[in-house]
Specification:
The chain is 84% helix and 0% strand. By secondary structure, the protein is an all-alpha fold.
Length: 77
């Protein structure tokens, strides 16, 4: 992707997170006194946590694949 496309992608992503946090903040009810920043960080946490878990599983899979591939190459030679 070109730089312009990445900028548009990141802006749309941040705008979506902003709208999600804003709607949480607007419909919070009168008894809860949390700030917009609290909701924004909560949304970011719930978006980043599954991505971090999936990335960790992916990285472990790559390491296992590399180890198996190297052991097969050594056993042939």
């Amino acid at each position: 992707m070109k730089r312009k496309e990445w900028v548009i992608f990141i802006l749309l992503l941040l705008l979506g997170i902003h709208f999600l946090a804003m709607s949480m903040w607007m419909f919070q009810g009168e008894q809860v006194h949390s700030t917009y920043f609290d909701y924004f960080m909560s949304v970011c946490l719930w978006i980043c946590l599954p991505m971090l878990i999936l990335f960790t599983i992916y990285a472990i899979g790559i390491v296992i694949y590399t180890v198996i591939k190297r052991s097969r190459i050594r056993s042939r030679g």
